[in-house]
Write a structure and sequence with these properties.
It is built from 24 helices and 18 strands. By secondary structure, the chain is α/β, with parallel strands linked by helices.
Length: about 625
């Protein structure tokens, strides 16, 4: 793999590599990157992998390559702006603390003390700060409220410092969300030299590249929500009250914006979760006045801010945000772009009230990636343990629009025949039938008896997860954990420390989770992980492929499910010493024509349809 990456860097070509778990792919791309002398951005799927690269893999290579200690690699890692403290916000709050409750007062004291000592301003250093801290949201360095070089704390700014370090580094470690947020900003700014936060680079390595389509889609799309409008109102009020620049006209304009926003979002079509907004034209014919009223309210805010007699610097940022919201709202409601799906999302965030958002997402991200990524960079390397479907890369090439790239499949060196057994029960009913839940719960209970717990039970939906968990409560003698009862990292830590534990979880535990050893000896998956066909983005992609004469089921839905299944099963064998059972309770993999694609894409596990073979696998004399 290292040779293939080195060749791609030398010849200025793109490369796609599937490298099985345990092949050491991070070292395989880091070594040629270091030797190349180019500035390279490495983009990962998770912050955990960023930290592993920065704190473990790169120092290891540094010691191996320069044992005399006579050379240091020039490396930095960057996260999204909301991970960093904004010193100006903290100083402003120090003068006029607006804190709600004892928790916020304690958190404020901890952040203020930490600010005096921290070099990075990265919130991950604050172990005591809850993930859901409302105070942090008031203090982070989001671009929405950034004043740039006009800020009084510019010289001490953690974002400025991070940007400076990046400009001086040869290797810059980011995550996909930051990379595509930056790329989207640069595209909107039409190549303005100071747009975005990442410096120019000679090459980009995408690790965990199977996530790119979804991440790119979200950043090249648009989201306008009632919460974003309310946040603008709150930020304007807080800043202008602090600077004593509040006027009666602005107060009236904010009141009008809130009323117009509440009215407009309450009129949107009814529905739960994510659903297509197909009748936008008819909606505007009926509710055009309310839409125009909301647009006029945003214009009114802009002009009131413009007319303020003595303007604090923040005012220009607020006016820009109001205009941006107006343009984006206009696009989501009125655009006729054929490569965009328009949809609505209603969801609760924590204990907060229901948030309604209007969304526009590209159906095919290939054209935009061709224009602003593949054609602009000399070398892009895509790698993951799960990129190939049936041994080839047609799916990933098509979804990402990457045409001219070499490719390579490198199998894992794990002995899957002797380390893992895949069990598919031939007698369970089809997962789409009502009888499935009862039978599946019973089979899971039996499997957990055989493996003595020590299992992940992974589901394709929250409803299914909760239903089976409830059915097995009191039926299973081992400790049971349920996703949602605690933060992800806390659940994983409890799983690792609790003998014979069983964790019930959904999509976020299918990837990026590493538990080695006997503690995880079983992974059970309820059904083939096809994306929900009614999801508006999935449905639009299916429709677009079929309209062009393709077969969306075999070109899109099956390959996407194959990659997800490979990710889920990949949780089990993480080292040469791991051993266990994989159970897929969905026997369509045996009975349907498309099942062969799944089977041919999986590693060479030992396979059985016999529960007694699973028992023998775990018997002491095995």
């Amino acid at each position: 793999m290292a040779q293939a990456v080195e060749q791609a860097l030398e010849e200025r070509r793109h490369l796609i590599v599937e490298a099985g778990t345990g092949t050491g792919k991070t070292l395989a791309y880091l070594l040629p990157v270091i030797r190349s002398g180019k500035r390279v951005i490495i983009s990962t799927g998770t912050k955990n992998l960023q930290e592993q690269l920065f704190h473990k893999d790169i120092p290891f290579l540094e010691r191996a390559l320069f044992p005399e200690g006579n050379r240091k690699l020039s490396v930095c890692y960057m996260k999204g702006r909301n991970n960093y403290l904004c010193r100006k916000k903290l100083y402003d709050l120090t003068g006029q603390p607006v804190l709600s409750g004892f928790d916020e007062i304690e958190q404020y004291r901890a952040i203020a003390a930490w600010e005096e000592a921290t070099q990075s301003g990265d919130r991950s250093e604050l172990a005591s700060l809850p993930e859901t801290s409302a105070l942090w949201h008031k203090l982070d360095a989001r671009a929405d409220t950034c004043l740039g070089q006009k800020c009084s704390a510019w010289d001490k700014c953690f974002i400025t410092e991070m940007h400076r370090r990046a400009m001086e580094s040869d290797i810059i470690i980011v995550n996909h969300h930051l990379f595509f947020a930056d790329l989207a900003i640069k595209q909107q700014a039409d190549s303005a030299p100071d747009a975005g936060i990442l410096p120019e680079a000679g090459a980009v390595i995408f690790d965990e590249a199977h996530e790119l389509e979804d991440v790119a889609g979200s950043y090249f799309g648009i989201s306008v929500s009632a919460a974003r409008l309310e946040e603008l109102c709150r930020d304007v009020e807080a800043s202008l009250q602090r600077n004593r620049a509040y006027t009666a006209g602005l107060s009236g304009a904010l009141k009008s914006l809130r009323e117009r926003s509440a009215c407009f979002f309450s009129l949107l079509p009814e529905g739960e979760g994510r659903f297509a907004f197909e009748n936008r034209r008819e909606f505007l014919e009926e509710n055009g006045e309310e839409f125009l009223g909301l647009q006029r309210s945003l214009t009114h805010i802009g002009s009131e801010l413009e007319n303020l007699p003595s303007k604090p610097e923040e005012v220009f940022a607020f006016a820009r945000r109001a205009q941006e919201l107006q343009v984006q709202l206009g696009f989501v409601m009125e655009a006729e772009d054929r490569n965009t799906v328009f949809w609505i999302e209603r969801r609760r965030t924590g204990r907060e009230k229901l948030n309604v958002s209007l969304q526009a997402t590209p159906i095919d991200v290939g054209p935009v990636l061709r224009e602003c990524l593949w054609s602009k960079l000399d070398t892009v390397v895509l790698t993951s343990a799960t990129l190939a479907v049936g041994g080839g890369f047609e799916y990933i090439r098509q979804r990402l629009g990457i045409e001219h790239a070499r490719d390579l499949v490198l199998p894992s060196h794990f002995d899957y025949q002797n380390q893992a057994i895949l069990y598919v029960p031939p007698d369970l009913p089809d997962p789409r039938t009502p009888q499935f839940q009862i039978k599946a719960a019973e089979r899971i209970r039996r499997l957990l008896e055989i493996t003595r717990g020590r299992a992940f039970v992974l589901f394709t939906s929250y409803a299914q997860m909760r239903d089976i968990y409830q059915r097995l409560l009191g039926e299973v003698e081992f400790p049971m954990l349920l996703q949602g009862d605690a933060p992800k990292n806390a659940l994983l830590e409890e799983f690792r420390l609790t003998p014979n534990c069983v964790l019930f979880a959904t999509s976020s535990f299918w990837q990026g989770v590493d538990v080695q050893g006997e503690q995880l000896s079983c992974v059970i998956i309820d059904r083939l992980p096809f994306a929900v066909p009614s999801d508006p983005v999935v449905a639009a992609r299916v429709k677009a492929i079929d309209a062009e004469g393709g077969n969306a089921f075999f070109q899109y839905q099956v390959p996407a499910a194959v990659i997800t299944l490979k990710q889920g099963f990949g949780r089990l064998i993480r080292s040469l010493h791991d051993r266990g059972v994989l159970a897929l309770l969905d026997n369509r993999i045996l009975k349907k024509q498309y099942g062969r694609v799944f089977v041919e894409s999986l590693p060479n596990y030992k396979r059985t349809t016999d529960l007694e073979a699973v028992e023998r696998w775990f018997s002491p004399d095995q």
